[in-house]
Amino acid sequence: MRSVPTVTNERELVGLSTSDDASVIKLNEKQALIQSLDFFTPVVEDPYLFGQIAAANALSDIYAMGGEPLSAMNIVGFPPELDTEILEKILQGGADKVKEAGAILAGGHTIEDEETKYGLSASGLVAPADMVSNAGAEPGDKLVLTKPLGIGIAVTAINGGLSPGGENSPAIQEMLTLNKDAAEVMQKIGVNAATDVTGFGLLGHLWELVSASGVQAVVNFSTIPLLSEVIEWAEMGLVPGGAYSNQEYINEHIDFTAGFEEAKQNVLFDPQTSGGLLISVTADKADKLEIALQKKGVTSAIIGRIESGEAAIKVKE
């Protein structure tokens, strides 16, 4: 992407330069437009659940920027030989999740494809002064994570028959959950930076945050919320290929303490689908943020801190 010519404008508040979750364009002094796009192949067998998960994942970019979803459009790739009832269930799932977010589903586009793909082009609104990007982390900040890690590993276990799937699965429940409540709390408390944790895993998205902010991060693994059994599954080798790609991409920037277990490393690189928010907040607000999140029923934990220095990540037990 670095070789692609870019066109900048004074109204562009967030663009390609910081690898953020979405673009932000200033409309006027009180409003800015957030735009993002995300789609992927099915992560679960149930088409209705897949539609919901894909929509929640796409809408998460709007929440990560501190915005409120406004509208969305479907993006669909669908094999012509499949029963159209499958497509109808996917679209119904997406529509229901967009409605839950309080946004408008305004249409979309479908093409024939060799495999099923679904997602959204999503837009939202935020006051320019209230926008949250991944580039504002400051030394002394605390790092707060919402939602437990391990979704990619858990889905691999489900697909391998080692864990039950369906709507009652903890991993699927997390993927179905919008980051709406977390974003509302984040805006109320006031934070310095945020991103959502999705395909690049916790460390991949944290790397983007520290790079954009020009700081270092220290992560304490023992404080990170995890889905049950993910360490055991990682030890069994139930790790999605994306985790290894993520590790290869940023491993030179990560300093693990001596003897840090490979299974735990895999969890930190595990690609998440519709994961939580990673928030950088001043130390004096961190406890207030956590308490407010818990009151909303949002799983959260302080998992580390921001320090001064050249962009890098240190991981401790």
From TrEMBL:
<protein>
    <recommendedName>
        <fullName>Selenide, water dikinase</fullName>
        <ecNumber>2.7.9.3</ecNumber>
    </recommendedName>
</protein>
<dbReference type="Pfam" id="PF02769">
    <property type="entry name" value="AIRS_C"/>
</dbReference>
<dbReference type="InterPro" id="IPR036676">
    <property type="entry name" value="PurM-like_C_sf"/>
</dbReference>
<dbReference type="GO" id="GO:0004756">
    <property type="term" value="F:selenide, water dikinase activity"/>
</dbReference>
<feature type="binding site" description="in other chain">
    <location>
        <position position="61"/>
    </location>
    <ligand>
        <name>ATP</name>
    </ligand>
</feature>
<feature type="binding site" description="in other chain">
    <location>
        <position position="38"/>
    </location>
    <ligand>
        <name>ATP</name>
    </ligand>
</feature>
<dbReference type="GO" id="GO:0005737">
    <property type="term" value="C:cytoplasm"/>
</dbReference>
<feature type="binding site" description="in other chain">
    <location>
        <begin position="18"/>
        <end position="20"/>
    </location>
    <ligand>
        <name>ATP</name>
    </ligand>
</feature>
<keyword id="KW-0711">Selenium</keyword>
<keyword id="KW-0808">Transferase</keyword>
<feature type="binding site">
    <location>
        <position position="61"/>
    </location>
    <ligand>
        <name>Mg(2+)</name>
    </ligand>
</feature>
<dbReference type="Pfam" id="PF00586">
    <property type="entry name" value="AIRS"/>
</dbReference>
<dbReference type="GO" id="GO:0016260">
    <property type="term" value="P:selenocysteine biosynthetic process"/>
</dbReference>
<feature type="domain" description="PurM-like C-terminal">
    <location>
        <begin position="138"/>
        <end position="310"/>
    </location>
</feature>
<keyword id="KW-0547">Nucleotide-binding</keyword>
<comment type="function">
    <text>Synthesizes selenophosphate from selenide and ATP.</text>
</comment>
<feature type="binding site">
    <location>
        <position position="196"/>
    </location>
    <ligand>
        <name>Mg(2+)</name>
    </ligand>
</feature>
<dbReference type="InterPro" id="IPR004536">
    <property type="entry name" value="SPS/SelD"/>
</dbReference>
<dbReference type="InterPro" id="IPR036921">
    <property type="entry name" value="PurM-like_N_sf"/>
</dbReference>
<feature type="domain" description="PurM-like N-terminal">
    <location>
        <begin position="20"/>
        <end position="126"/>
    </location>
</feature>
<dbReference type="InterPro" id="IPR010918">
    <property type="entry name" value="PurM-like_C_dom"/>
</dbReference>
<comment type="similarity">
    <text>Belongs to the selenophosphate synthase 1 family. Class I subfamily.</text>
</comment>
<comment type="subunit">
    <text>Homodimer.</text>
</comment>
<keyword id="KW-0479">Metal-binding</keyword>
<feature type="binding site">
    <location>
        <position position="21"/>
    </location>
    <ligand>
        <name>Mg(2+)</name>
    </ligand>
</feature>
<feature type="binding site">
    <location>
        <begin position="108"/>
        <end position="110"/>
    </location>
    <ligand>
        <name>ATP</name>
    </ligand>
</feature>
<dbReference type="InterPro" id="IPR016188">
    <property type="entry name" value="PurM-like_N"/>
</dbReference>
<dbReference type="GO" id="GO:0005524">
    <property type="term" value="F:ATP binding"/>
</dbReference>
<keyword id="KW-0418">Kinase</keyword>
<keyword id="KW-0067">ATP-binding</keyword>
<dbReference type="InterPro" id="IPR023061">
    <property type="entry name" value="SelD_I"/>
</dbReference>
<keyword id="KW-0460">Magnesium</keyword>
<dbReference type="GO" id="GO:0000287">
    <property type="term" value="F:magnesium ion binding"/>
</dbReference>
